[in-house]
Amino acid sequence: MIAKDSLRESSSEYAQGGIAAALSDDDEVALHEQDTLIAGDGLCDPIAVSTLVEEGPAAIQQLIEWGAEFDREGSRLMFAREGAHSRSRVLHAHGDSTGQEIARTLYRKAASLPGVEFRSFAAMTDLIVASDGSVAGAVGWEEASGTRTEIRARAVLLATGGLGRVFRETTNPDVATGDGVAAAYRAGAEIADIEFVQFHPTALYIPGAPRFLLSEALRGEGAHLINAAGERFMARYHVLEELAPRDVVSRAIVTELRRTEAEHVWLDLTHLDAAHIRARFPRIHATCLGYGVDLGAQPVPIHPAAHYSMGGVRTDLDGRSSIPGLYAAGEVACTGVHGANRLASNSLLEGVVFGARAGRVMREYQPAAANAGEMLEETFPEISESAVRSLTWDHCGILRSGDGLREALSALDVKTRRLEANYELRNMHTVAVLIARCALARRESRGAHYRVDNPEKRPEFQKHSVVSRAGDVEFR
């Protein structure tokens, strides 16, 4: 296992909201399945969703057996309700550190196995592709020595996480630059539904501070969204108000900001018990306090930010990509579970369920023939990172249009060079182009993808977008 930063630095490490599974007495797998399908807005793969929710409870139980400590009331697991869930089915760990606890548990388990080797600060820059098109390993960039290293393997699993850093405003850590999607695309793999990017509605908005995620669970506890005039406004946009799906809440906030000409709105918890909020969300409370905001005493300035990619490397239910020897799991993969809009707290569950499935299958994989493979030729775009991030935020963000997407593609159509080896910039550029291309091709609004010039869903686009180096965007 190689990691571009420390082994602890990942989006999972910062996942606050929780992990969803139908384990409570008043819940059913069928209800979890139904909620997931509704959130996906017509694009979920029903078989993938069924696999997720049916295997989820056993996956949670295995994590507990391996030492994961989820929050409890006495001896009973404690379940929370989040947006678009019909039941309280979301488990948390240490209040708002669920991803960190799961990552700790998995690392400890993996480290106990004799066949697992860890290598930190060794970013994957490309895949090694054999003459028959199969993957024969990966190329790592060793930060300490400044050299490229070939890692030969009969199978490779991409678990590189998300692509949020492609956008100017994001809750994602610095490492989330779309590396897996970009490398897989260059190697010839199919990328699916990459236009569907979820924007979390509530990120801390303080000049000079990172866009720290303020969990949806805060609204689940009763937090209100208010505008500059101190008015609750979500009732104008959705019957579920603050608990509406994330894409609805994000668009409502952007619309409200344009209407009021304000820079941000506010998340208000001052009507809730301050001691309970401190105990329930210790990490969020401490972080906000560090930036001068006391959750229990004053509203928090917030703004939507890029948060999660529903699309990615197109895989089957066992993590296989479209090219032999390459597998993907977690946010980098597109299993079809999330459709056009991920249901809250399904992401950690997807990583656990489908990561295990991929691991079991790739362990048995044997290449058709022994083939050394070659490293891909390297080229780097002549554009700055800030330019890429601004283009995607302005034209591929919460509200999109055909003209804006074409403008982004024109600006991203830059020359390449073989000078400065900025691998992250190269990957961000590749992913930005893919998002813009697929968003332009999808001439409708569905889930997290909203076109102001095509505001309605269209039945001819109730299909998955698929793109590869071999040709144009297809809908299947």
Question: Which ranges are low-confidence, i.e. pLDDT below 50, for 5 or more consecutive residues?
Answer: none
**Count of helical segments?**
13
Q: Major sheet, described briefly? A: 5 strands, mixed
Q: Compute the gyration radius: what is it? A: 21 Å
Mean pLDDT across all amino acids = 93
Structural description of this entry:
- There is one protein chain.
- The chain is of the alpha+beta class.
- The protein is built from 13 helices and 21 strands.
- The protein has helices spanning 11-14, 29-39, 46-65, 98-111, 179-187, 216-220, 246-260, 274-280, 282-290, 347-362, 385-395, 402-412, 423-441, and strands at residues 19-20, 72-73, 76-77, 79-80, 90-91, 122-129, 135-142, 147-152, 156-158, 191-192, 197-204, 224-226, 265-268, 300-309, 312-314, 326-328, 333-334, 380-381, 416-417, 465-467, 474-475.
- Strands 17-15-10-20-21 form a five-stranded mixed sheet, covered by helices on one side. Strands 11-14-13-12 form a four-stranded antiparallel sheet, with helices on one face. A three-stranded antiparallel sheet has the order 1-5-4.
- The longest helix has 20 residues, at 46-65.
- The protein is globular and about 65 Å long.
